[in-house]
Amino acid sequence: MSRSTGAYAITSTLGEAVRAFVPYPLPPADPPLAAERFVDLNRQAELALARLAGVAGLVPSVDWLLYSAIRKEALLTSQIEGTQATLTDLFDDEAGLKVSNTEDVEEVTNYLRAFRWVQAQLRDPQGLPVSVRLLCAAHRHLLDGARGSGKQPGELRRSQNWIGGTRPGNAVFVPPPPERVADLLAALERFIHDPAPGLPALVKVALIHAQFETIHPFLDGNGRIGRLLIAALFEHWGLLQEPLMYLSGYLKQHQAEYYRRLSLIRGEGDWEGWVSFFLEAVVAAAAEAERNIIAVASLITADRRCLLQSPKAGPASYRLFEMLPMMPRFTVEHARQRLETTFPTASAAIQVLEALGILSELTGQKKNRVYSYRAYVELLSR
What we know:
- With 382 residues, the protein is mainly α.
- The chain contains 15 helices and five strands.
- The chain has helices spanning 39-56, 62-80, 87-94, 102-123, 132-143, 178-193, 201-215, 222-236, 247-253, 255-268, 271-308, 315-323, 332-339, 343-355, 374-381; strands at 6-13, 16-23, 329-331, 360-361, 370-372.
- A three-stranded antiparallel beta sheet has the order 3-5-4. A two-stranded antiparallel sheet has the order 1-2.
- α9 (247-253) packs across α11 (271-308), α10 runs antiparallel to α11 and α13 crosses α14.
- The relative contact order is 0.14.
């Protein structure tokens, strides 16, 4: 199926005339989206999300599932853009430990901050809805103090950008001219709040993400904000009660196909191919998150049983163990503060868990020792 999904505007930038692509508003037309093609795949995706929510409900604390899931999404969405930070870098940074690639970690923690802020807005009756204002504010959080801080944080671009190539003239893709961006985003916002009837919510999310990436409204951070928009829409339409799925893992694994599918919308009008790819991503990512929850829950249950059977375990070691899923690497001082106890009590609690093989000491030093819930960190880092 072939359709035109936009028109080209001739614009002059860096002294040369270039063809910038201006997308037509959603939903796709001439012909309309062949929604019947997605009925089975959409049902599979909805079932996968329902199963994920069901499995999460069996775990004692959804908070520690969210702790790892949100960090994995932050890490993976940043890695798609070339960030080299790892999950252990993130855990070390949160424990107040030194990390070598500070700027990369800052980019990931900025994404976490932007994500939490967006979620809080959408859950607050007085907060911002999914809107251009919300995305601009999230963009400000994302680039705050990080490498992109000189790229107009929180502001729609006022100059021409491009993707691939060394200049607009040899670029792989040239997004709309800057003077068209505000109107294109306003049309996208209208589609979000007054969408086409008969299209399932997941299909609408797929369309909106692709349209946002085509508009490319910021000078930097468009990929990350576009994927954050996916999470915001999942929240907005109640597709998943809690953000337990890290979709960016699948998109990173199939990065070339991800970009190719977006490109085929602009080049050949293949919205159907993109929507199918997106729904397959949801099915795979939900199943991966479900497997991860089961594996993590099994590990923690086995280690808890081991601790409860230990004659040396006491209240402080029990409390410390329950903190580990949200404090997987730490110093003795960090543990002392969290336990609100004395240094000897915190040290004794750590020693109980270390003797049972639950914790590992990482430095080999007598002082300033660092501990890790190693099996848990390895499980999350797979």
